[in-house]
Structure formats: C-alpha cells, structure tokens
Amino acid sequence: MLAASYRDCQAWRAEGLPLSTSSNEACKLYDAILTQYVKWRNDETLGGFEGCISAIQAADPNFVMGHVISTGLELVATTSSTRLDERLAGAVKQTVELANSQDISPRERLHVKAMELFSHGNFPKACDVWEDILVDHPTDLLALKFSHDAYFYMGAQTPMRDSVARVLPYWKPHMPLSSCLKGLYSFGLLETRFYDQAEKVAMEGLALTPDDAWSVHSVAHVCEMKAEVDKGLKFMEGREKDWQVSDVLASHNYWHWALYFIEKVKIIMSFVFKRCKASGSMLDTVDASSMLCRLEMEGVCVKDRWQELLQVTQPHTDDHVTLFNDLHFLMVSLGAKESRTSQRLLEGLQELAKEPGENQQHQLAGTVGVPMCQAMMEYNQGNYNQAVELLYPLRYRMVDIGGSDAQRDLFNQLLIHAAMKSENKHHQKLGRCLLVERDAVRPNSPLTHRLMQRARALHD
Fold this sequence. Notes:
Layout: H1 9-14, H2 24-39, H3 48-59, H4 64-76, H5 86-100, H6 106-119, H7 123-136, H8 141-154, H9 157-167, H10 180-191, H11 195-208, H12 213-225, H13 229-238, H14 240-243, H15 247-263, H16 270-279, H17 282-297, H18 303-313, H19 323-335, H20 339-354, H21 360-380, H22 384-391, H23 405-421, H24 425-441, H25 446-459
Helix pairs in contact: 2-3, 2-4, 4-5, 4-6, 4-8, 5-6, 6-7, 7-8, 8-9, 9-10, 10-11, 10-12, 11-12, 12-13, 12-15, 13-15, 15-16, 15-17, 16-17, 17-18, 17-19, 17-23, 18-19, 19-20, 19-21, 20-21, 21-22, 22-23, 23-24, 24-25
C-alpha cells in the first residue's frame, strides 16, 4: 500500500481535479508518478517510475489518466519516436480509444487530446490545449509541467514563464508540491533574462524544499549567464547532497557544475559520462555530447570519448523527435568520424522537412535545423568560411531549436570559432564583434577573455 500522503479518489475530488476511476490505489499511484516527475526523482521505495507505471496499470487497466501520465512521460522524454516505435504509437492509440469509450471529464478529455497532439510533433497546439486546461484548473500540475517541458523544446521562453505566472495566485502553501512551482517560475524568469528575480524565486523554493533540484538548476543557470563562476562553484558544491538525490536531473546539474570548471579550464567529466551511459536519458546524452564539443573547442583531446558516446546516440539517428536532439547526435557522429551516420541524419531530416505535416520540429527543419546541421558538417571539414555563412544568418533563430540559453550557447561558440578560423577577413572582424557583444552580456567571463586573446593572437 502507498503512503497516506498520496491522494486517493476523494482527495483529488476535494481539490477540484476528480479522476475517472474508482480505484484509490490508482489515484495514489497517479500522484506518486506525478510527484516523481516534478521532483526529477525515481523514488526507489515505490519502485521508481517503472514500478509505479506497472502498478497503476494493474490497479485499473482502464484508468485514462493513468495512461495519459505513463505514455505522456515517455513522449516528453523524447527517447523514441512514434514514427518508428510501434509500441509507443500503439500506447497513444490505446489511450485515445479508451477515452472515447468512457464517460470521462472534459479536463481529462483535453489531456488525451494534448498528449495525442504532442505525439504527432504538434507541440504548439498541445501547449494550447494544456493552457486551456489551466484556465479552468490552474492547479492541474500535470498540464503545467507537460506544457513547461514542451515550451522548453520549442525555445518558447516567454510562454514558459507566463504559463507559471498565470497560475501562481491559485496555489496555496498547503497544496502538495506547491513549493515546486518556484523552480518552474524561476526557470522561466531566467530564460527571459530576469536573472536577479529568478535567483530570488529559486532561493525561496529552496528555503521551503532544500532538495528541489529544479530550483538548484535555476540558480546554476543564473550564475552561468552572469559569469559568476566562483559563486556557482560554491553553490553547487555546498548543495550537492541535496540535489544529488534527484537522479533524473543530477547528471544535468553536474554538467552545469562542469561548465564552471571549463570556465577555469579544469575538467569534470566522470559524473556526466557515467550517468549518460547508465541512464540512456536524453538529457544526459545531449549534455555529454555538448560537454565533449566544448572541451574539444578548448583544445582538449576527447576522440576516444566520441566513440563511446556514439554507441548511445547512433540508435537514435532516425528518430528526429526534436531538432535539439538531432544537432547533438550529429555532434557525436562528426566527432567520432562516422560520416555515414552524419550523412544519414542530415538526409533523413531533409526528407522530413519536405512534407512536415503538423510536426512543428519538422516544419522548422528546412529553415533552421538542416542549415545548422550543414554548418556543423562544414566546420568539421575545416570549411570555416562556409560554416559562418550558414550559421550567422540563423543566430537569432537558434532559440527555436529549444533547450536553454546555456545549452544553446554552444552554437554561439561554434560560430565564433568558425569566424576566428575563417580565412575571410570580414569573418575575422565579425568574430571579434561577436566576442565584444558576448562580453557586454556576460562581463568577466574567463571563456570570453580567452577567446579574445586567441583572436588577437591569430590575426594581429
């Protein structure tokens, strides 16, 4: 039996979020899965996500919201595509059919619709439906968290912030998981450059829940964006025991910690790499890819690591769930000198861009994803001039690939490196301009200063 703290049928009804099942156990398991999702943590006492998902299907096989949360979590993980994975596509279809055969609430019906839209890659419309739910049910945390993740995949920074801001007044301190909204709101604030406010809100969240890994993650971002390296190092180290327990996010938080070390030209790779290979999680995989790329740009030899990582990324070559993932997979195949895989990824994306249908990521592929892939390939072949020509016109559109400012910064660095290495004098000047601009946004960044010195050494 689950702990009494998890909500049963009556408790969900009392909160105005009734669930269409008569099984108290199913209701509690739904709450347990939601709690783990929001806390970025497999609770081993419950058997983690997998144990709870198996148990909820056993408790009530026809519980629509049980299917919505289970299948929805697999979809937002972006580890497989409904285009290629028949089992996942079947799970979506089964949920829709179950919903159509039952008398469920309008809110639950909207949840099914949003999940189905997301499964087709129609992230914007899925978010519209989740927002419709939140207008009538502002304390529906599943709708809020799913939309938060989908906005993140689209690089929709302002909607991600405002989505949480709109519902905050309806959340009271006694409500389960209410403190976790601080982390969600803080992340939206920092991605829209309200750094001081973002830090303040995150620290409020940590005062209530010291092990709130998303609030820790938010402060890590603020220190990264403000180039407060020593402060970031001290903060991450001082709270490591708190955020380490959130196993789903721990590797990503180690990645942020590692960024500060790269700023000081020290390296911490073991945690990020070990966890990526063990978990197979997409967040851990893209972090490891990005870390290797950054280290390589800093002049560190990482060629054996690329080969290791290729074992993780190669099976996802044809997925094309998000452009952000695709660009990181390409990084790895280029680093591992696996040209056939690189070519296959690019050609697959070009094909999907021709007839994208309602898939928002495939709609963007032609104008943003494909040229970014081509730029990376040109850079890899030493065609720096061509890499600049492809990347520079896209610099203000890169946000559309999703992820955070800190994660996308890799592509800004790539453009700067390409401009510095180009034989074209105009590009070399452009590289310096981009560094001056970068210094204005994040004063005192050791990375920027190193690049400025390198630019002077190359061209003076």
